[in-house]
Design a protein that fits this description.
By secondary structure, the chain is of the alpha/beta class. The protein has 14 helices and 17 strands. It is 41% helix and 20% strand. GO terms for molecular function: 2-dehydropantoate 2-reductase activity.
């Protein structure tokens, strides 16, 4: 039996699914949450709804590091939205780690951190505070809208999680940790490839996530396909111009075909959307688009290129979140006009 304990910082859609699956498999996991979600996890556990099951899993839930004694058997998994990652990382990096009844250092010094977030910025954020950082490329259709509940629409496996040391390559200690993560997370119903370099996978996922903003802003109110194609083409040009390695479409398609597929979850509408849609639906006041479309704008600006479509989309998403706009409040034609493509 694994002696590793996974501390899931940010038990929303992705973190809740990972932590809930680990707990359901009998592995040691702590879910870090806040507000009504934390209260629900503590009082009734985590309701995990999938195409094949509807179970409530008892979980160990805390609000922060002051409620937990960390040891050298802990692995931190940051699964917040990217815009929330700096606060999460600084909160946990200086938490004391105990061994033999005494403090032996901080989490940043002693513990590994896995970054299970969209985009490609969180690994660099984490390296500012943690000596051992491992990127996670998350392929998992998960939804969190109700306190104490997570919906996962992948089956028969819940998702695919590529994990690797950042920066690559891994040494013997890294390989031992990655092997343990692969063993535990596979037992928790995930496919867990261990690529030599995880970042090309994360950049390919970044391209896929550029469409999140269309789903959130328009949400079926017109055809955004042509806009999405031009946005993705712009991003690919920028990444190529910057010399950034991106996993090929063929390799990505092959990996996906060997993993999970999406299925309906009983009682869940088919039009439930992704992470940006969920942020607008919950009215959080912010979205991660600055680290998706905005990441392409950043790379373009750093390398003397231009990415006007992605930059404008990041602005529109920011404004929508700040104003409390609901998904679908904008038509595809209106969005095209605001992008200068009408």
């Amino acid at each position: 039996m694994s002696t590793t304990r996974y501390v899931i910082v940010g038990a929303g859609a992705i973190g809740g699914a990972i932590g809930g699956r680990l707990a359901h498999a009998g592995l040691d996991a702590v879910l870090v949450a806040r507000g009504e979600h934390l209260a629900a996890l503590r009082s009734t556990g985590l309701r995990l709804r999938t195409p094949e099951e509807d179970v409530t899993v008892p979980v160990h839930a805390v609000g922060g590091p002051d409620e937990l004694e960390l040891t050298e058997h802990d692995v931190l998994v940051v699964a917040t939205k990217t815009q929330q990652a700096p606060d999460a990382l600084t909160t946990w990096a200086d938490a004391p780690v105990h061994a033999g009844g005494r403090v032996v250092g901080t989490a940043g010094e002693r513990l590994p951190v896995l970054t299970a977030l969209n985009g490609v910025a969180s690994e660099t954020m984490a390296l500012r505070y943690f000596a051992r950082v491992y990127g996670v490329c998350v392929w998992m259709p998960a939804v969190h809208l109700t306190p104490g509940e997570v919906i996962v629409r992948g089956a028969p496996r819940s998702g695919m999680l590529h994990v690797g040391r950042v920066p690559a390559p891994a040494d013997e200690r890294d390989e031992a940790l990655l092997a343990q993560v692969q063993q535990d997370w596979t037992a928790a119903n995930y496919d867990v490839p261990l690529p030599e370099d995880v970042m090309p996978w994360k950049y390919r996922k970044l391209i896929s996530n550029l469409g999140n903003v269309f789903q959130a802003l328009v949400h079926g109110n017109g055809d955004t396909g042509p806009l999405a194609e031009r946005t993705e083409a712009e991003a690919r040009t920028v990444l190529d111009g910057a010399g950034i390695a991106v996993t090929s479409d063929e390799d990505e398609a092959a990996a996906r075909s060997a993993g999970f597929t999406m299925h309906p979850v009983p009682g869940v509408p088919d039009d439930v959307g992704g992470s940006t849609w969920q942020s607008l639906t919950r009215g959080t006041g912010n979205v991660e688009t600055d680290y998706l479309n905005g990441e392409i704008a950043l790379i373009a600006h750093r390398t003397g290129q231009a990415a006007p479509l992605n930059a404008r989309l990041a602005t529109l998403a920011r404004q929508a979140a700040a104003s409390g706009m609901r998904p679908g409040a904008m038509s595809a034609d209106e969005l095209a006009e605001r992008l200068g493509l009408a």
